[in-house]
Amino acid sequence: MEFDVKSGSPAKQRSACVVVAVFEPRKLSAAAIDIDEVSGGYLAGILRRGDIEGKVGQTLLLHSVPNILADRVLLIGCGKERDLNDSTYRKVIGKMVSTLQDTGSMEAVCFLPELSVGKRDAHWKIKQAVETASETLYNFDQLKSKKDAARRPLRKLVFNVTTRKELTESARAIEEALSIAEGVKLTRDLANLPPNICHPTYLAQKAQEIAKANKSIKTTIIDQAELKKMGAGAFVAVAQGSDQPGKLIVMEYNGGKSGTAPIVLVGKGITFDTGGISIKPSEAMDEMKYDMGGAASVFGTMTALAKLGLPINVIGVVAAAENMPSGKATRPGDIVTTLSGQTVEILNTDAEGRLVLCDALTYVERFDPDTVIDIATLTGACIIALGHQVSGMLSNHNPLANELFDAGESSGDRVWRLPLYDEYHEQLESPFADFSNLGGRPAGTITAAAFLSKFAKKFHWAHLDVAGTAWKSGKAKGATGRPVPLLMQFLIDRAGKQKRK
Ligand code: BES
Ligand code: MN
Ligand code: ZN
């Protein structure tokens, strides 16, 4: 799909469709008024007859509007003008795209960026529109034997901005959004793949393909035997129960000055989580293929980053393993030595994410990172605490937490911080090892992060628990691509700050 920006008059667009807003109750937007005047009150007449009220997401597709050069005019309801906010703006863009896709227009000129969405500027409105459009058109049919392609698919969307001076920033917004959209798509594709296809070796191959396709990325794979030799006892304890060997995947992107301390992203890549010997109940266990959602977001972010060519150094690390029960699997009560040298009593083999991540966190110390962010579908408790709307965030550094919070607010891929007070460490105490991997039911998301924090003392670190946000269950089951938009916004902001330094 192609995107562009222009600045022109709605009545003069030679296009298959022009999209303009109607507010509640039956009130035309500026672009709609323009069309109304040129067409001799055609739209006002329709509103008077009550065909569209202007409620959020309502649509009315008109053909042959008098004196208008476009074949069609799509009226789209945006609710009360003063109530228009980030989420209704996205909703309306999504509705517009699905309507265009389902009707005959293969290209359209959209005047929705003229609307005021709080204090959002043209850059934000265009970026969000392009990301939302790409997300709306996503479908995963790789494994269907018959694809149901749209008969007349939407090929090109042009966004109209009010002033010509907004054109430059809008073009940059499209560029950013297209790279993010590509990253989101890769993340969704990887996460949606079934666990018999997407195993640790598959992910390692994917990382090598990414390095081949992007000159700026270098990939290294560390296999299970090497990890064992290195002393990554916690990682190996998880991987050893499976016939699929575990892999630590390292993707290095050097867009910044050489020698600048990198930002490291660490993804939980459990390609299937049965729980191991502490086996999970079978209901909805298929969804545990999404337990590599954090890893998938690292892949997506690395490709988006390379496509955009941001002038920073970023290293993506994926801890890929399959958590299976077998004769070789770790037992509850086993004690292992982590790569850091600290010992862990594994009381529950289903708390495996923190075990693979803790060794990955120790591993990345060698890069002397400026910042480390891990991304993991780590705890069911995070869904209880925050639901599916926002991701959990925990951090040992307030400025980093604030940067991530801000990136969440502007990208719409939001996070909410939970506390990491010392007292929570008490729940991890073990009579036999340095600590255990289990904190009990209270504050499950926090005690999981407290465990990780014991391996993140040497750098500024944030942990994102995406258990509630990486995928959707139910009828529209599928990966969301989160938190790629958040991570990319964070990186774009970091690259901007660097330039100003
Ligand atoms: N991958 C799960 C967390 C999860 C569960 C994410 C359901 C999304 C939906 C993780 O490995 C896990 O099993 N966590 C346990 C931890 C517990 C044993 C301390 C959990 O959340 O129950
Ligand atoms: Mn688990
Ligand atoms: Zn898991």
From TrEMBL:
Pfam families: Peptidase_M17 (PF00883), Peptidase_M17_N (PF02789). The active site is at K280, R354. Its EC number is 3.4.11.1, 3.4.11.10. It comes from the Bacteria. The keyword Metal-binding applies. Its cofactor is Mn(2+). Mn(2+) 1 binds at D273, D350, E352. It catalyses: Release of an N-terminal amino acid, preferentially leucine, but not glutamic or aspartic acids; Release of an N-terminal amino acid, Xaa-|-Yaa-, in which Xaa is preferably Leu, but may be other amino acids including Pro although not Arg or Lys, and Yaa may be Pro. Amino acid amides and methyl esters are also readily hydrolyzed, but rates on arylamides are exceedingly low. Binds 2 manganese ions per subunit. Residues 348-355 form the Cytosol aminopeptidase domain. GO terms for biological process: DNA recombination; proteolysis; regulation of DNA-templated transcription. One of its GO terms (molecular function) is DNA binding. The keyword Metal-binding applies. It is found in: Cytoplasm. GO terms for cellular component: cytoplasm. Mn(2+) 2 binds at K268, D273, D291, E352. InterPro entries: Leucine_aapep/pepB, Macro_dom-like, Peptidase_M17_C, Peptidase_M17_leu_NH2_pept, Peptidase_M17_N. It is an enzyme of class 3 (hydrolase). Transmembrane segments: none annotated. Keywords: Aminopeptidase, Cytoplasm, Hydrolase, Manganese, Metal-binding, Protease. HAMAP family: Cytosol_peptidase_M17. Belongs to the peptidase M17 family. Presumably involved in the processing and regular turnover of intracellular proteins. Catalyzes the removal of unsubstituted N-terminal amino acids from various peptides. NCBIfam families: PRK00913.1-1 (NF002072), PRK00913.1-2 (NF002073), PRK00913.1-4 (NF002074), PRK00913.2-4 (NF002077), PRK00913.3-5 (NF002083). This is Probable cytosol aminopeptidase. It comes from Permianibacter aggregans.
